[in-house]
Amino acid sequence: MVKARISKRIAILYGSETGNAQDFAFILSHKLHRLHFAHTLSSLGDYNTLDILDCRHLFIICSTTGQGELPRNALEASHGNNRSSTLWSFLRRKDLPSDLLNHVSVSFLGLGDSSYPKFNYAIRKLHERIVNQLGAKEPYKRLEADEQCMLGSNKNTGAGIESVYFEFEKKALDNLCATYPTRKVNGEIIKREELPADVYLRPDSSLLIERDDNIQSNSVSFKGDEFVRVGSVERNQRITHAEHFQDVRQFIFKGAEAHEYGPGDTVSIFPCNTDQSVQQFLELQPHWKPVADKPLIFSDRAPSIEGGLVQPLTLRNLLKYHCDIMSIPRASFFKKVWTFATDMSRLERGLEQMNQQREKLQQFGADEDMQDLFDYCNRPRRSLLEVLQDFMSLRLPWEFALDFLPAIKPRYFSISSGPNCSSIELTVAIVRYKTILRKIRKGLCTDFIANLSPGDQLRYKIQNNHLFENEQLRDRPMILISPGVGIAPMMSLIRAEISNQIMLFFGNRFMEKDFLYKDLLQKWEETNRITLFSCFSRDRENSPEFKYVQDRLWAIGNTIARLLVEKDAIIYLCGSSGKMPTQVRITLLEILKKWGNFETDTAACDYLKLLEKNDRYLQETW
Amino acid sequence: MTEAELGLLLIHPAVTTEPELLAKALEEAAASGVQIADQFLITKINDKSVAVEDEKYDVIYYLTPEKRDAIKFPATLIPVLADALKPNGKLYGLPDTYKLDALINGFTTASEGRYHWVKSAVPQDTATAVPLKARANGGGAAKKLPSFKRASSPVQVAQQDNDNVLEDEYDDDNVNTSGKAKFFADLHNPPAELIEEEELVADSRDPTGITMITCGKTKTRRKKACKDCTCGMKEQEEQEVDQVRKNQDAVVKFSEDELTEIDFTIEGKKVGGCNSCSLGDAFRCSGCPYLGLPAFKPGQKINIGSILDDI
């Protein structure tokens, strides 16, 4: 019978922000399977902490958030609501002995970007704790990749982060193969050799038709995560001017039950594909059509799917709710599917063209130089669906759909409504942009939200982040800084009346076009609920002096410094990542240097760090 | 009188030492109205020295001296047998332990009478993914290809249980972690005191003691504009996009009914000698006027309704 292919002896764990670390982990997993190494593959947050006792070879691939933190999926489990028994929260306990992990050999790959100040901090934290403090062995020194090739393992080489990954992979495989050069097949010891490239590796569990009839009903349910609820849309209103380029929504839905939440908490929304996209996929893989609505079962264990698995299980439902066919396909997708480029019936030039496509697909998956893949997929933001349109030789086996199609992930939004309010309000910028492809690019989740009408249902889950709890905040000044949609959690803080003295620094482009919640904020200012400092970066007429939020901060630098140093004020910064958070931080530092009455600049700098350490300088950027 | 059903008898090599088994099988087949048309050793089919025709047989018998629950059969042959059977054809002799392979290859299992498998009458496409055959060219070309010839080799699928579990085969692990288990006892309790994360990192942007890469195979990737770009790169990218779109407008008529023709007659339109314009972006030259448009068949209308909305 089928043997367990999951082994605890070898584990690949990832912490991923944008998906790069996850995809590299998937590629490493793929390579290990092809060398017949059973192993565990998981996000750091989903890893079963106890399994570390049985682990001997650990591979950690982790990126770093803008603030030098571990990514969300490294800190929390994707199912349920667990943040306290994850591997990382366990390893941070003070009462652990210094030889706790001396049975583990661990290799690290960090993915970072040196344009952020805390370059590769996440992997360094993991490394310091796991190796230097808890005694794990490192067969080779860690690798740190830099998107900018200015620091780390690829410093000044001009080589991209994938070069660093492939160096890591080579070391990982060499090391394992040297330790385990043979394997046993039917009791016989043979040399460990890689599977031939064109052999497709069947996943643990594949799909089978359960009965030969068609499911007509459109109603679905999900099982697997009891924290995911179904809400009902109450309001979905554009709050930017119709002529403004960006569509921002005030989006309100009724929760399925009374939830406890507060300012700084988030909601994850589980989006789905449109019926039209699903139908397009089926047209491109016409042999899926006759089975699209048949009830399916898994040949083995049902795979674990974030947010729960759709019922009834049909191909159409899987494509709609779980398979991210609108995402940009990654190298691991091509690695798996190229061998299915076997259909020449739809090609104008027959066999020759089929082989050409086959070769190209294989190259996209295997090339260590990912430049061609980047130019073909990432740069124009080409969807998987559009790739299928271009490669008509691909005839994908639906049985393994969940193995080669990427999974739809939930998206996170800050809550704008007041605490515990049964109508949950979000502030959502609808993602749309233009590339060389004629069709406008859309974000899967925000497009899903944009198309919802009052009464429609959506799946969501609430995360309690405990940002503003357990603190006596009433009499402490709050300095809220939020360009654009960063206003979302600020609305919740203001509504919660968290402090008697709230200063809101709010930046937009044009006063009359994208001044979000203008009337409400102005009313709150009139009633002294907040002090509003607005500015408009492209609107000289209405904002002649100030372009950005940091300009407004600087203009009252003396006051800001006094509030921080004397009044124990709290800063909360929220908005898009990129240069804004860095520039705000530099401005605050200069304010402290100039008006903070510190003896030296270093003392001012240390004071800012102390604010961060004591959670008085909080930041949520994306 | 009904026509006799055509049968295929497959024989395990060890049967040759037990001729009475074979005789009995032939007798039984005849008794149930099956005429054994062919008789092959499975080893011959497995090494491809004998080929079986597609959809020839009503019944296939597999004859082996192995105990029923110990039968070993090459799973790669199951799709071949599926092909050899007519729709609703029956396969006797493979045990239920191969049920997964049966289902994947379009069989259903039946236990009325002697246990057997039935080839499903559902069109084969829908039920079998493995092996995948290269489809012949549509239209005329298809007729030229005899149905039993494969235009390319089928996709091979390996089971993941090829994987070896190190625990099973390398029992050299003499690490005893039982003493450490006690530290995990209060794993699910509210966290004890935690170390300060920030103190784990030294304040160094460029630490020593990391592995440097030995050879970077990548070319320097063209930089991408940052989210809040202020250096002008974003504008440059937007200009490039606009230029490509302008090139598209010169070669393609985007008409109102969303049916769009790739028109080869537009005056002044450049068609490269590369012959790759129709193959899609993955194959186009840089600067190709078709960049950004889907692959197409020259001269044919392509429905780009799907790519056209929201322009």
3D structure, described in words:
The complex is a heterodimer of chains A (622) and B (311). Chain A is α/β, with parallel strands linked by helices and 622 residues long. Chain A folds into 3 domains: 10-191, 3-Layer(aba) Sandwich (Rossmann fold); 207-214 and 221-232 and 270-404, NADPH-cytochrome p450 Reductase, Chain A, domain 3 (Up-down Bundle), CATH 1.20.990.10; 478-621, 3-Layer(aba) Sandwich (Rossmann fold). Helix content of chain A is 30%, strand content 20%. Chain A has 19 helices and 25 strands. In chain A, strand 21 (478-483), helix 14 and strand 22 form a beta-alpha-beta unit. In chain A, helix 1 packs parallel to helix 5. Chain A is globular, with a radius of gyration of 26 Å. The two termini of chain A are 47 Å apart. A 6-stranded mixed beta sheet of chain B has the order 2-1-3-4-6-5. Chain B contains 9 helices and 10 strands. Among the domains of chain B are: 5-127, Fe-S cluster assembly protein Dre2, N-terminal domain (Rossmann fold, 3-Layer(aba) Sandwich), CATH 3.40.50.11000; 233-308, no CATH class. With 311 residues, chain B is α/β, with parallel strands linked by helices. In chain B, 22% of the residues lie in helices and 16% in strands. Chain B has helices at residues 19-31, 42-46, 77-84, 99-104, 124-127, 140-144, 166-169, 233-251, 305-308, and strands spanning 5-11, 34-41, 57-63, 85-92, 107-110, 116-119, 156-159, 252-253, 259-262, 301-303. The chains are: A alpha/beta (622), B alpha/beta (311). At the A-B interface, helix 4, helix 5, strand 8, helix 9 and helix 10 of A face helix 4, helix 5, strand 7, helix 7 and helix 8 of B.
